[in-house]
Amino acid sequence: MKEDLSPFKPEDYLTDDAALAHFLTDALNDRYGNLAEALHIAARCRDIANLSVATGLTPEDLAAPDVDTIRRVFKALNLRLEVVPSGDGRE
Questions:
Q1: How far from 85 is each of 17, 30, 76, CA to CA, in Å?
Q2: Which domain holds residue 52?
Q3: Is this prediction's pTM over 0.70?
């Protein structure tokens, strides 16, 4: 018997600020992979149209972020970027 499986959508599990922050932190630290894709998923979680208005960016800008776009998206998502020591002893 074959089961019908629906595709995995990370946005289905990013239901609060803490989960979204953790997901984007993983993307920033290369544990997720593609930061641009992660930001697009985050935008879908919060409705791209509303995020577009909040950031003053078009949906196309949100799909191909530069540093300023990333900063504006994080601000609109009520998140902040933070750099902390990795603790791995590298200099």
A1: 23, 15, 26
A2: 11-76
A3: no
